[in-house]
Design a protein that fits this description.
Nucleotidyltransferase, domain 5, flat
Length: 392
């Protein structure tokens, strides 16, 4: 496929019910279509909002404006029709948004899966299109304000480029996958993708992994309450939370390193928080968070503090066993997979994060999905004479 020899499909910008119905009729008759979404997730406004839907057949690219009052439910039913194939590229966040809107697309084919199993390091759509189709996509508009109307011609053309070339790209990648005998693995990955159900986590816990690992329960509670306070204000003002108060400033307050009365002097603060009334309100709420932590008798000891000698010895022995298993078992398996499949495909199948989860007991090798991943690890262990039964 080449942008100089293949005419791009016609673009239709849809903002009314009659045009949407005609679009739906076209899609219902198509054996396949490609789709992508543009959304705003806490960048310009509060929340996760659908701003534009790009749907392409080889002949037409429909740019559907969800912000024009359209009823999208009939379109969602087309997305759920298993007889129609839907091409996507790295659709995780798009599916998370659609699932939150009670739309569950079926018969998905993700071109990024092909790229990952073909051992590409950079699997972005722009990189794949440049390598295989000679097409350059300017990604500068990716972070533009998709919720602002009217959309510019440049925005619409950029949005269309995310879908109109997927048919040709998949054909190229399919040929490579089939030549290497990888299609059964692709099919397992796509089956796993189609079975996945994404969810939006409720905004009740804002702490990061390091917070849980290195902060005391008392300090975790106070910091999380501060995050919740910021989130509630952001929701009220329909602003992204980072525009209300930067995370760095919030954490400095939570850690007790920044007195609240100095808040108006800080960068990254919404003007609302620089008023005397809001400063006093935050001081009162911050005192209340501490009082609630004390009332709940939360410990001020960090994880690992206050261990008996026996407990500390057990902790250290467990850590050493994990490091030994990583070095003697899982790193050799990674090396074997790299020699068979390439480094980047190896990391797609058995990443360092996954190894840590296995060693901590958070997951089992026998529970890995899709199943071919289990089989590859078992094959590697067998070839190397390694016992992986403790983690299987």
């Amino acid at each position: 496929m080449n942008s100089d020899t293949v005419a791009p499909p016609a673009l239709q910008y849809i903002q009314d019910a009659a045009s949407l119905q005609a679009c739906i009729a076209t899609l219902q008759a198509a054996p396949a279509f490609a789709f992508d979404l543009e959304f705003d997730r806490d960048r310009y406004t509060y929340g996760f909002d659908l701003c534009l839907m790009q749907i392409a057949t080889p002949a037409t690219c429909f740019l559907i404006d969800p912000m024009s009052g359209l009823d999208l439910q009939p379109l969602f039913r087309v997305f759920e029709n298993p007889a129609i194939r839907k091409l996507v590229h790295c659709p995780g966040e798009d599916l998370r948004l659609l699932h939150s809107l009670h739309c569950f697309p079926t018969n998905l084919a993700d071109t990024e899966v092909y790229a990952k199993l073909l051992n590409y390091e950079q699997t972005s759509l722009s990189n794949m299109l440049m390598l295989h189709c000679g097409i350059a996509i300017d990604k500068k508009l990716q972070t533009s304000n998709w919720g602002k109307r009217p959309l510019t011609t440049a925005q619409l053309e950029y949005a269309a480029a995310d879908v109109i070339y997927l048919f040709g790209l998949e054909a190229k990648l399919q040929d490579l996958v089939m030549a290497k005998g990888l299609m059964p693995w692709v099919e397992e990955e796509l089956a796993h993708l189609n079975a996945a159900r994404y969810s939006l986590e409720p905004k009740t816990n804002f702490l990061k992994k390091n917070d849980l690992q290195f902060m005391s329960p008392y300090d975790q509670f106070v910091l999380n309450e501060l995050f919740k306070w910021r989130d509630q204000l952001a929701r009220k003002k329909n602003k992204p939370a980072h525009q209300i108060m930067s995370e760095e400033v919030l954490r400095q307050i939570g850690y007790g390193r920044l007195p609240i009365e100095q808040l108006p002097l800080q960068q990254g603060i919404h003007p609302l928080l620089k008023t005397p009334g809001m400063v006093r309100q935050l001081e009162r709420d911050f005192d209340r968070f501490h009082a609630e932590a004390r009332q709940a008798r939360l410990s001020r000891k960090r994880a690992g503090q206050g261990l008996t000698p026996e407990e500390r010895n057990t902790f250290e022995q467990d850590r050493l066993r994990m490091e030994q298993a990583k070095k003697q078992v899982f790193q050799p398996i990674q090396q074997w997979l790299t020699s068979e499949l390439g480094e980047h495909t190896m990391r797609f199948i058995l990443s360092g994060t996954l190894i840590n989860d296995i060693l901590r007991g958070d997951t089992k090798i026998g529970a890995l999905q899709p199943p071919y991943r289990q089989q590859l690890i078992l094959r590697a262990a067998g070839a190397l004479g390694l016992d992986i039964s403790p983690w299987h």
